[in-house]
Amino acid sequence: MRLLFAVMALTLVLTGCGDPTLSALTPSGPVAESQFWLMKLTFGIMAGVFLVVFILWLYVLVRYRKKSGQTGYPKQVEGNHKLEIIWTVIPFVLLIIMAVPTVTIGFDLEKRYDKAEAMQVNVTAHQFWWEFEYPDLGIHTAQDLYIPTGKKVQFTVTSADVIHAFWIPALGGKIDTNPGDENHIWLQADKPGIYKGKCAELCGAAHALMDFKVVAVDQAKFDEWATKLKTASVTPKTDLAKQGQEVFKKSCIGCHAIGSEGGRLGPNLTDLASRERLAGILPNNAEELHKWLKDPQAMKPGNKMPNLNLPDDQINALVEYLGELKIDYDNGLPKQ
Ligand code: CUA
C-alpha cells in the first residue's frame, strides 16, 4: 500500500501537477477549460465505476469467503442472461454519456473559431526545437512563443523531420505535427503569464528536452514586442562581437538566421539573448552558451547541430556577439 502511494505521488510529480504553468488541471483559456470539463466528467465516471466495482468485490470477498468446516467446491454457476445484459448496457450508457459532450465540444470549438479575428502562427517542429512564424507580421522566431491575451490564435502546425506533438497543457491541445502535412488548432490565453509547452510525441533522443515557452501579454505589449523584434539591431557593438559576427558569417549562417539573413535549418537567433532559456532548457548565460557551442550534442543529445570544433577564441567571440542579440523589451512577467 505504501508503495502504491509512493508510485501515485511520483506520477503526480512526473506529470507536472506541481507546476500550474505546465498543467492541464489549471486551464487558462477557453479551449483548456472545455477540455478540463471533459476530463472531470470522464474522471468522475471512471471513479464511480471503480468505486462500485471495488465495493462489490469487497462484498463478494467477505460474504462468500470459505467458512470453517466447509469442504469441496461451492455451487458452480454458468451464465446469467439478466446480469450479462445489465453489465453490457451500463458501460454502453456510460460511453454515450462521455461521447456526446466530447464530440459536441469538438464541433463547438471549431464553430467558435473565426479566421478573420484570429492571429495566425505557423509552427514547425524540429528535432528538438520549435520554429514560430507570424505570417501577417513578417516575424520569424524560435522557442519563445509570444501571443496576445484575450485573442484567438490559430496555429498551423507541421514538422521538418519526424512526428512531434505541439502541446501547451494550460492552454489546451495537443496536436500532432506531421512532416509534409498541416494540422490546425486554435488556442487562447485569458490572462498574461508564462505557459510552458512540450513536445508530446516521442521523437528521438532529446524528446524530453524539446520544451518551449509561451509568453502571453496584452495586445499593446504584444505589438511592442513584435515591433522591437522586427527592428532589432544586429550590428555588433564591441570589437570582440565584430569578430564573433565574422565567425557567425563563416560557420553558422548556413543554418541560423540573425535578422533577415541566414538559413532556416536551425533556430532564428535575432533575440537570442532576450530568451529566458537556451535551447529551451539551459539557463541563458555566457557560460552555458560557451558549453553549448563547444559540444552541442552533450547538452541535447541527437540534435541536428554538428560540433564545429571551433577554437576557444572563436567561441568566445561568438558568445560575445550572440550575447548582444537582445531586444530592449520587458514582458513585465515574473521570471521563471
Ligand atoms: Cu519532438 Cu518529442
UniProtKB/TrEMBL annotation:
One Pfam assignment: COX2
Start and end residues of each Cytochrome oxidase subunit II copper A binding domain: 116-228
InterPro entries associated with the record: CcO_II (IPR045187), CcO_II-like_C (IPR002429), Copper_CuA (IPR001505), Cupredoxin (IPR008972), CuRO_CcO_Caa3_II (IPR034236), Cyt_c-like_dom (IPR009056), Cyt_c_oxidase_su2 (IPR014222), Cyt_c_oxidase_su2_TM_dom (IPR011759)
Molecular functions (GO terms): copper ion binding; cytochrome-c oxidase activity; heme binding; oxidoreductase activity
GO CC annotations, alphabetized: plasma membrane
Topology term for the membrane: Multi-pass membrane protein
Keyword check for Electron transport: yes
Keywords assigned by UniProt, alphabetized: Copper, Electron transport, Heme, Iron, Membrane, Metal-binding, Oxidoreductase, Respiratory chain, Translocase, Transmembrane, Transmembrane helix, Transport
Cofactor(s) needed for function: Cu cation
Keyword Iron: yes
Domain Cytochrome oxidase subunit II transmembrane region profile: 16-113
Cofactor, free-text remark: Binds a copper A center.
Catalyzed reactions per annotation: 4 Fe(II)-[cytochrome c] + O2 + 8 H(+)(in) = 4 Fe(III)-[cytochrome c] + 2 H2O + 4 H(+)(out)
GO biological process: ATP synthesis coupled electron transport
Enzyme Commission number, as recorded: 7.1.1.9
Ranges for domain Cytochrome c: 239-326
Transmembrane segments: 42-62, 83-107
Subcellular location: Cell membrane; Membrane
Superkingdom as given in the UniProt entry: Bacteria
Family membership noted in the UniProt record: Belongs to the cytochrome c oxidase subunit 2 family.
The protein's role, per its UniProt record: Subunits I and II form the functional core of the enzyme complex. Electrons originating in cytochrome c are transferred via heme a and Cu(A) to the binuclear center formed by heme a3 and Cu(B).
PANTHER family: CYTOCHROME C OXIDASE SUBUNIT 2, CYTOCHROME C OXIDASE, SUBUNIT II
Name of the protein in its database record: Cytochrome c oxidase subunit 2
Organism expressing this protein natively: Brevibacillus fluminis
